[in-house]
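Researcher: Quick sanity check before group meeting.
Model: Go ahead. Protein one:
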Amino acid sequence: MELITYLGIGAIAGFAAGLFGVGGGLIIVPILYVVFTQAGYDPSVIMHMALGTSLATIMITSISSMMAHNKNGAVLWNVVRNLAPGLILGSFLGAGVADILSGQHLQIIIGLFALWVAFKMFKGAKVAVDESKSLPSAPMQMLAGGGIGIASAIFGIGGGSLTVPYLNKNGVVMQKAVGTSSACGLPIAIAGALGFMFFGAKEAVHVPNAIGYVHIYAFIGISVMSFITAKLGAKVAHMLSPAMLKKCFACLLTVIGCYFIFKGFWH
């Protein structure tokens, strides 16, 4: 029964990720939060479990997304190589930071982040890319990767909403920014998920079928289904107006953001 629930979440998250072109993290985290609460898990670790499990599932979805973008030649591998060390170190550290924060603080932080992404999407994120700009030096890219990695682990996301604007700002055209960001999601997700397992294991978390802060059944169910439905979501996205899609997603994120902020302050 439990596995069926997670397959359902995966189907929704994958479809939404394909539809809105955003990693499923911002959708998976709130749904898992509700499911884990219903399952009666220890409230102090629910938010951590939702984040750790979300990152684990992004490992699978980012591979699928990265392969599709790579086929279209949209992944700048030299940039991925420069960012990767920072992303890996940052995500692992980010999991450690999340471990120190209370569930309430995490809710407020993620709520604010969801509202920020919603605001940017609603504005239409029409970033005029200045192609005369070029990316900073490799060490500076690595530093930027560190910042993106830390934030991504704390938010339980693959980093697209941070990597894409960073690349755009430095003269990378949108298609390549998205493609490169999809490849960057993999090191973020692996290091972040391992971090949540490691720090969670040290906390001796008592949740059935979990390693540290990663719920194994949820990881399997969500990964399997989202891998399948992401492609379907992407197909549907091509039939609809991108501006309308962004506005719909922005509204959804606003609801999620307000919900988490409310929960965080209300406890």
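Researcher: Fine. The other one?
Model: Protein two, sequence then structure:
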Amino acid sequence: MNKTVIIGSNHAGIAAANTLLDQYPNQEVVMIEKNSNLSYLGCGTALWVGRQIDSYEGLFYTNKEDFEAKGAKIYTETTVEQIDFQQKNIQCNSNTGERFFESYDTLILATGSKPIAPNIPGADLENIHFLKRFQDGQTVDKRMSEPNIKTVAVIGAGYIGVEIAEAAKRRGKHVLLFDGADRSLPSYYDREFTDQMDKNLSENGIELHFGELAKEYRGTKAVEAFVTNKGTYNVDLVINAIGFLPNNELGKEHLELFHNGAYVVDEYQQTSDPSVYAVGDCATIYSNALKKISYIALATNAVRTGLVAGHNIGGAKLASSGVQGSNGISIFGLNMVSTGLSVEAASKNKLDVLYTDYEDLQKPGFMADNAQVKIRIVYEKSSRRIIGAQMCSRAEISMGIHLFSLAIEQNVTIDELKLLDIFFLPHFNQPYNYITMAALTAE
């Protein structure tokens, strides 16, 4: 009987636990979680706060009792104070003050990530919040209901920042969106796409403040003003969404780390300590676009890494196939999806690339239910392998990005895409599909 202790029980930890419990009967599984709940879908927080869904209950997809029924031992509201990696022993403290130890044969670190906090004056004022845990969402939702909260500043125009800016606007607030970059969503999209999102945000009443860096919060008890390098703004609530860093506190002195602090893992999710695996946002992942290890913090990646770790610990040799970082966002009806690398990201990683753009209606012009679709395919100049794609439309085009995800994984070239068998039916697409046309017009 192998005893596996999993520290952290969100997407990655849960995927590993389910794999071990459901498929490997010789496993004893212990789960340690510092929160009072598990399995919270944080990507749904903005939908709930923005009242696009009725309640938060559906954002939890499992619970403690489900795992106990499978035979797991679960500690919630329990903090891991220290790990003795030589003796394979974990020191824990419960919320009641009880101190106890758990030994392990195999350890899975699924500690996730932690939000980046601006180290500026006034950070201890009230009404300055982050969005990570369920409790964070509860607090922000409660503040949105207060009539004295009229102006909301969102710091960070990545996915979480843009989504919560929309949610605050839907709750009737005056919303200011700040970012040090000169546009929204720069990590996943090139300017030709983010310009459309910025226009969409502005047209829906979001006040954009790009190229501004946080300098200070001001107020007596609660925040009253937010100061940047370009101005001072009166605000009633601040939501920080600058980004996240790997939570490596428990193993940073013992395990090999990536340049950003993530635990370095191999294709089996194994760290530099053979008895320790790391999964999810605290670990590296292999990028098929870059052809090397990288850091891509996405819930889907967390689930995949948890599955891989679970199978390998259980005894089945399973190597990860790598990821592309596929992602998407839908804001005020504008849908954007991407996978792999943008042209800008490729340049930062010193890849010599070309790209092809195409824009057309989703369906033939005679179809009433229709919308424009913009697509960009990024490919390596020398090998001509596809390394990225971006799509944007008010139509539902998200499934198309999965084709490009597979293309990147399988090293498909732009030329192989030109005569791909893509069907035509007016209800769905054009006779000359925009994917085909983008490939055909590639340099």
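Researcher: One line on it for the slide.
Model: The chain has three domains: 2-112+251-314, 116-242, 337-440.
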